[in-house]
From TrEMBL:
Enzyme Commission (EC) number: 2.4.1.-
Database matches in Pfam families: Galactosyl_T (PF01762)
The name this protein goes by in its record: Hexosyltransferase
Species the sequence originates in: Fundulus heteroclitus (Killifish)
GO term, biological process aspect, one: protein O-linked glycosylation
Length: 414
């Protein structure tokens, strides 16, 4: 009996071993099959010669995005979904992805109508500065008529286009720039052109009517670009977008763009020399300036750059200080195209950083850009300006004083 029982136990153990072996083989085979499928999927996804074979995810893989409570973030989420190429491709198929309900809350059909959603969705709207309120009500509008245009300013295909943000009353600043660093024509055997960007100075902001004087200035110098919108600090982003649109139509052949305020001093000679020696592989994505990193919105209402949490939450991408920066003409076109996918933000240099991030680019910091100025003890030293590209901020009289130091061949700065 014991022998028979022992034989039965051995038989059972052998049967169990065989089952384990079969199970192990099945697991190995399944793993090999999964790896083969993963390899095929990877290969299909990276087959550049036949992009039509790329498989889109099934509907169940898409999850509903969590809507932000902040107005700007919510608007950007909407744009991100609308401009997502995978979702757009799927929408053209037989089984479109169900979009979130909040995508239907798009406001007025005409983006240039007052956005009635703003006071309702931004709880502290009534406590914001009036100019900030104005920006938010018209944030979606990007179409404003031009009062003054210069469609032929780039006919000679400039190597460098100098673009200066200005205000209507700043006649003296514009004239000082024309007589110094913004002088159009040939410089170091390269063609340089100059334009000034302006909006409309309104009586609401306590400005006198200067339009006739501006029209005369435009006829005299042929370098003013003016749009019919309220020219305020919070609308500097609008000025940026309108310029990029103008550039894409009237000046796409310009190789480089230097953009700055009308109170900066620019060493145009040094910039031209820098660009002439730039390797071709670095020219296309060029964007340099005084780069700010790890910054975020100011929450102090007393500060100029105050943005409440009801409007925006999050950290800013790296961006170049708006006093002045240098970038390629090729990149200017791409910035214009991508700007359509980025909601207008009330701080223009941060907005440009957002557009660069969308393009997968980061601005490069250059020590020659001093958008926060230089120490007072160095401001009277001629050779300091020879070594820099851009200095902020200087009065017209200082520009007229400094420019001869730049062009004087007898000045020894060795």
């Amino acid at each position: 009996m014991l022998s028979s029982h022992h034989s039965e136990i051995q038989s059972a153990e052998m049967s169990l071993c065989r089952k384990k072996a079969r199970t192990l083989c099945m697991i190995v085979m399944i793993n090999i099959f999964i790896c083969a499928l993963a390899g095929m999927s990877w290969k299909l996804g990276h087959n550049k010669g036949n992009p039509k074979r790329v498989r889109l995810p099934f509907k169940r893989f898409w999850s509903r995005p969590i809507m932000s409570e902040s107005f700007w973030n919510k608007e950007q989420q909407r744009l991100d979904v609308i401009n997502n190429p995978l979702i757009n491709l799927d929408l053209s198929g037989d089984s479109p992805i169900a979009l979130p309900d909040w995508l239907n809350d798009t406001g007025p059909l005409d983006p240039c109508e007052v956005d009635y959603r703003v006071p309702r969705q931004i709880l502290d709207y009534n406590t914001l500065p009036k100019q900030f309120q104005d920006f938010l009500l018209h944030m979606r509008c990007r179409a404003y008529p031009m009062r003054i245009n210069q469609p032929h300013v780039c006919d000679e295909k400039p190597f460098l286009l100098l673009v200066v943000k200005s205000l209507m009353p700043h006649f003296d600043r514009r004239q000082a720039i024309r007589q110094t660093w913004g002088r159009a024509g040939l410089l170091a055997s390269r063609t340089v052109a100059t334009v000034f960007l302006l909006g409309n100075s309104s009586s609401v902001d306590n400005y006198p009517d200067l339009q006739d004087m501006l029209n005369h200035e435009a006829k005299l110098h042929k370098d003013l670009l003016q749009w019919d919108y309220r020219d305020t600090f919070f609308n500097l982003t609008l000025k940026e977008v309108l310029f990029l649109e103008w550039f894409s139509v009237h000046c796409p052949q310009a190789q480089y763009v230097l953009k700055g305020d009308d109170d900066v001093f620019v060493n145009t000679l040094r910039i031209v020399d820098f660009l002439k020696g730039l390797p071709e592989d670095k020219a296309k994505d060029l964007f340099i300036g005084d780069v700010i990193r790890n910054a975020g919105p100011h929450r102090n209402k007393k500060l100029k750059y105050f943005v409440p949490e009801s409007v925006f939450v999050g950290q800013y991408p790296p961006y170049a200080g708006g006093g002045g920066y240098l970038f390629s003409g090729d990149l200017a076109i791409r910035l214009y195209n991508i700007s359509k996918q980025v909601v207008m933000y009330p701080i223009d240099d941060v907005y440009t950083g957002m557009c660069l991030k969308k393009l997968g680019l980061v601005p490069d910091k250059h020590a020659g850009f001093r958008t926060f100025g230089i120490e007072e003890k160095y401001r009277g030293r001629p050779c300091i300006y020879r070594s820099l590209m851009l200095v902020h901020s200087l009065a017209p009289q200082e520009m007229l004083k400094i420019w001869p130091w730049i062009v004087n061949p007898e000045l020894d700065c060795q």
